[in-house]
Design a protein that fits this description.
Blueprint (H helix, E strand, L loop, with lengths): L3 H8 L8 H27 L2 H29 L15
Helix pairs in contact: 2-3
Length: 92
């Protein structure tokens, strides 16, 4: 409860937009789930726990980076363009 407000401020951004840190945290948590899945599937396919953990550990780093980049591309692609204020011209 004490950290509630500071954490909200850390993850807060403009309404409808994820912050960079939130995208990073989402990519890490999703990667943990994905790596556990990869290790289980690799173990079922190979029957070797060491090989399954090796495969999972190699893919975890690359997939975190790929997911983060994917998130940021989607964030930029779905931005709505906001028109700025119209310039004022000086009349003489």
């Amino acid at each position: 409860m004490i950290l509630d407000q500071p954490l909200k401020k850390l993850f807060a951004s403009k309404p409808g937009k994820d912050s960079n840190i939130k995208s990073l945290m989402k990519s890490i948590s999703w990667r943990i789930v994905g790596t556990i899945d990869t290790i289980i599937i690799s173990y079922i396919v190979t029957g070797e726990l060491i090989m399954a953990v090796s495969i999972g550990s190699v893919e975890v780093v690359s997939k975190i980076l790929l997911y983060y980049l994917h998130e940021r591309v989607w964030e930029n692609a779905t931005k709505t363009k906001v028109d700025g204020p119209e310039p004022e011209y000086i009349r003489s």
